[in-house]
Amino acid sequence: MFIDIDCARQKKYSQNAYGDYFASKRAPGRVIAVLSDGLGSGIKANILSCMTATMLLKFIEAGADIRKACEIILNSLPVCKVRKISYSTFSAIDCAEDGTARIVEEGNPKFIWIRGGNILDFQPQTVASKTFADRQMRIYDIKLEIEDRLIFCSDGVTQAGLGSNGLKLGLRRDGVIGFILRLLYDDPFISSRDLSKSVVEFALSAESFRKAKDDISAVSIYFRSPRKALVFTGPPYHAEKDNEYANAFKNFDGKKAICGGTTANVVSRELNVPVRAKISVNSGALPSLMEMQGVDLVTEGVLTMTRAAQYLEDAESAISDDAAGQLVKFFLDSDCIDFMVGAKVNPSHYDPNLPVELEIRKNIVKKISKLLEEKHIKKVTLQYI
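User: That's the sequence. What structure does it adopt?
Assistant: Structure tokens below.
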């Protein structure tokens, strides 16, 4: 079972910083994540939520039981002297790939658990704070099955549209559930990335003039069979191995991409499949895409991967529809990504006339792998050939 997790966020109108903070980590056999909602909005809320989420993630990652880690935060978070409420709220998740999960919530809306188009009901264990009389956390121990979904959100989602005509009390949890069930009915296999974005967009559309009155965040977790992908970049070090690796690429069970003109020519020659330039109006400063039968995506090599790494690093910015943008979409629409990296040196990578920021193939693949694992919670393997 693969744990597909993603988060989408929207700042409060007129603010320059997110008041909600999401942190996640894929550890061996499990995923841990925290969504925290800081008091108020802007820079102050950002600092408070970032502190809470980061501390919790570090505690759990270091081996602390999620309940114990959350109790420490529960008993330690100060109370605002003016508003008399906690500096931040949180939802913490620890999910194993065998489907066992423990979830702890304090102050955030109750999460949504969907199986087969139905909402599952569940009762938590509650633990009161030893420090603050009116503060308690909810603990859930659940067993997930393949195709189950969990959705977490900040109160910016459930309270979206508060006070407006037809939504005097906001969307509330029932309104969010109704929207998600309709979305899943139309697209049962929608990714966590697209689902979380859709929930945020739905909440924003409920606000007057689409101006968010609070920070809006949604986290989606989807338990499913993994979407596998293979990227072949760079010709093999030993030319006599070209046919072996070309056939391994051909027989891979999943989506396939080639990054590099020389690599594409090697595969084309060994498999006797022509490679052609693909006319595109969105190529921008990058070389255009190519196409080859049986291959989902064929791009130029180092320049395109360097730009793709920039897109992956700045995940909040819009991604262009150029070759690098198509490569990023290929990555984000996959779960387990294997790289076959040819070790043969391409002399053009050392051309002094090329841009200074150009990185040689191995380094840029390592950078992309790290970004995919740490920022986008993918499983990545590297094979040098």
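The first helix runs from residue 42 to 61.
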